[in-house]
């Protein structure tokens, strides 16, 4: 993709307004908390303290909107405390431009490295740096700085208290994640009726797993229906696939296929009902006809062998899902534990240290944002436009570790800032609102920001820019700065951000083959772990199979995210065409699916070992490890050991007396051959 087209696509994407479900009550709660803090501090301490406290409450409320499954009060408290500390330390060195720029560089670098922990932490850290640039200019003495920092922390405390006192759809994010996973399984069951080899995107299951991890305090209050349904959804997926598959399941046509379609339709209906019940905290409403399809004795007469076992297992699992989804029902406790924020600190430090290498996108982002923020602050100070913090604030807020988001947000922020600043400055200059009216207008803008922040970045920037203008007007600061000056500084910050990525990029496109190799290797480890348990039967609950499956899902999602980012980059990968990437993705996905079919029929604990299974597992592990290296080295992988084993089995040399394993080995080799063919394109 050329630079011109890349800029055009990212600009269009940044200005897109999405249709999302609005949450007016949650937005109203955040605005109410802001109003309480501003009104209290304005009445008792005056406009300047009110501005500081407003930024603390505003940022704390934004933290509670992040896509995080940690307790919302914890996020609000952490945001308010970190901004308070940043403000106070910033004021201590603010008297000296050089010292402040050193602190700004250090704070920005740490904020950039915090993206290694996750996007939620990265967003909060970037926002804190941006807000600090404003709040450090407000106090006039050391005592005043301490007071401002304290009121910023109070703002976070108030927002945290409101989340506790006015709970709105408690556990809503966790309910949505689990319901989305069950709904994805329902959709998968329906698609399998028409496409027996349909692919399944594991992202809903990965999201549900992340949502299921709780702190000890959360575990004591979590609703029972959120405990065990996720684990059942994980176990249902391979059973659905094995029932529908024409190679290892029922024939492509005939009475068995018709019964399989009926079972899949009933499974989709039951999973949808369970998803609705969990999402809304209601009893599961099922049609008797759907249950009758699963429980009819005709299934045992029509289906035989592996499909019959799959049908019986599916019925048992769906019964468990219905029982788990019932509000207040008995449920098994989940073993997923989320560390507290304090316990997370050493983990975050180790994660960030692992990114301290030249080729790391996180380190490159930290270097870029640090350079741009300090350069923008210096330019803003030198230029005769006043309040030069608008330039570095714009840079810090728009910069992300990848190209597309940085450029999308730069365009969106400039357009949003242009509209928001023009509107708010016009009101301030012509209406001359007093402190209380300016505070009211700021609260209204904050409500608009909270309400529409997920519909598009440009929409949110209109409100947040107006919010900043009204707050500065309330404190009497920035009244002499015009729309033109603020827009020019914002444009300067956006241009610096875009130039920094062009000069010091971290392109995802050249790493696509590495991501693909990681996914192939993870799939191979998963397949080998599954096959190994045919040699040593240990039942369905296997830690190594589970761990390799999770690694496979993580590698697949990393590949998909990398490919999506690479689509908008103005660079070309000479070793992997777009068509080859799509075909290879399909082949690797089908290879993992073949391994999943074998997982669905793992022998029970104590069953006799299957001869040849250990040899097949070792061949799979060896060829996929070497194949992954060859993919990274831009070579076409060959699967010699696996091919030799499968061909020997076909000649009757050491072939196991196990239809599923013999057929599964052939299917796995076919999919690996498709990987090689796709890479040869």
From TrEMBL:
Q: Where are the transmembrane segments?
A: 26-45, 88-110, 117-136, 142-166, 366-390, 410-428, 435-453, 459-480, 487-507
What is one Pfam family matched by this protein?
Answer: FUSC_2
Record's superkingdom? Bacteria
Keywords (alphabetical) are: Membrane, Transmembrane, Transmembrane helix
Q: Does the keyword Membrane apply?
A: yes
| Transmembrane listed as a keyword | yes
Extract one GO cellular component term from the record: membrane
Q: What membrane topology does this protein have?
A: Multi-pass membrane protein
- Domain named Integral membrane bound transporter is located at 377-499
Compartments, as annotated in UniProt:
Membrane
State where it is primarily located.
membrane
Q: What is this protein called?
A: Integral membrane protein
Recall the taxonomic lineage recorded for the source organism. Bacteria, Bacillati, Actinomycetota, Actinomycetes, Kitasatosporales
């Amino acid at each position: 993709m050329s630079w011109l087209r890349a800029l055009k696509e990212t600009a269009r994407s940044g200005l897109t307004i999405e249709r999302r479900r609005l949450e007016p009550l949650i937005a109203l709660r955040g605005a109410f908390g802001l109003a309480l803090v501003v009104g209290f501090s304005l009445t008792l301490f005056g406009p300047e303290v009110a501005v500081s406290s407003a930024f603390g409450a505003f940022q704390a409320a934004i933290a509670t909107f992040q896509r995080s499954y940690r307790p919302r009060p914890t996020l609000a408290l952490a945001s308010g405390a970190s901004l308070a500390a940043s403000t106070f330390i910033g004021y201590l060195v603010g008297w000296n431009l050089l010292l402040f720029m050193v602190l700004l560089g250090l704070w920005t670098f740490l904020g950039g490295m915090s993206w290694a922990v996750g996007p939620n932490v990265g967003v909060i850290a970037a926002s804190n740096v941006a807000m600090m640039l404003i709040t450090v200019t407000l106090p006039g003495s050391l005592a005043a700085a301490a007071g401002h920092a304290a009121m910023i922390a109070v703002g976070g405390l108030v927002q945290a208290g409101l989340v506790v006192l006015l709970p709105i759809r408690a556990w809503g994010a966790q309910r949505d994640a689990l319901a989305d996973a069950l709904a994805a399984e329902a959709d998968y069951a329906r698609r399998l009726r028409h496409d027996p080899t349909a692919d399944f995107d594991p992202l809903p299951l990965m999201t549900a797993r992340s949502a299921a991890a709780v702190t000890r305090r959360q575990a004591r209050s979590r609703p029972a229906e959120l405990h065990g349904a996720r684990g059942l959804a994980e176990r249902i997926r391979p059973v659905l696939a094995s029932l529908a598959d024409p190679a290892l399941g029922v024939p492509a046509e005939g009475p068995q296929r018709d019964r399989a379609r009926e079972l899949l339709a009933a499974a989709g209906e039951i999973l949808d009902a369970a998803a609705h019940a969990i999402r809304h905290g209601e009893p599961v409403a099922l049609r008797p006809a759907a249950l009758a399809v699963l429980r009819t004795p005709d299934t045992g007469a029509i289906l035989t062998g592996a499909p019959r076992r799959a049908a019986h297992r599916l019925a048992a699992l769906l019964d468990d899902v219905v029982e788990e989804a019932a509000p207040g029902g008995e449920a098994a406790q989940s073993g997923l534990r989320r560390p507290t924020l304090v316990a997370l600190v050493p983990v975050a430090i180790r994660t960030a240290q692992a990114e301290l290498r030249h080729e790391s996108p996180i380190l490159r982002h930290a270097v870029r944002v640090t350079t741009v923020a300090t350069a923008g602050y210096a330019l803003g100070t030198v230029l005769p436009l006043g309040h030069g913090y608008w330039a570095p604030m714009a840079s810090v807020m728009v910069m992300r570790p990848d190209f597309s988001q940085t450029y999308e947000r730069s365009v969106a922020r400039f357009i949003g800032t242009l509209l928001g600043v023009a509107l708010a400055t016009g009101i301030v200059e012509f209406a001359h609102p007093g402190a209380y009216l300016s505070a009211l207008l700021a609260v209204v803008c904050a409500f608009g920001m909270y309400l529409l922040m997920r519909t598009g970045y440009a929409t949110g920037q209109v409100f947040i820019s107006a919010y900043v203008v009204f707050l500065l007007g309330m404190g009497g600061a920035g009244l002499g700065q015009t729309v033109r000056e603020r827009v020019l500084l914002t444009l300067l910050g956006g241009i610096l951000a875009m130039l920094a990525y062009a000069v010091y990029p971290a392109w995802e496109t050249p790493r696509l083959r590495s991501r693909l190799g990681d996914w192939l290797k993870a799939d191979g480890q998963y397949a080998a772990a599954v096959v190994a348990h045919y040699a040593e039967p240990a039942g369905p609950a296997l830690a190594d199979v589970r761990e390799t499956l999770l690694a496979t899902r993580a590698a697949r999602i990393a590949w998909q995210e990398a490919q999506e980012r690479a689509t908008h980059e103005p660079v070309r990968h000479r070793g992997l065409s777009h068509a080859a990437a799509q075909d290879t993705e399909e082949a690797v996905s089908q290879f993992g699916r073949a391994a999943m079919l074998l997982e669905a029929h793992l022998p029970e604990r104590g069953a006799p070992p299957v001869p040849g299974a250990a040899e097949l597992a070792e061949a799979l592990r060896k060829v996929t490890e070497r194949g992954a290296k060859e993919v990274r080295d831009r070579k076409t992988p060959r699967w010699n050991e696996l091919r030799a084993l499968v061909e020997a089995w076909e000649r009757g040399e050491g072939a196991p007396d196990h239809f599923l394993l013999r057929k599964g080995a052939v299917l796995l080799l076919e999919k690996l051959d498709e990987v090689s063919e796709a890479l040869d394109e």
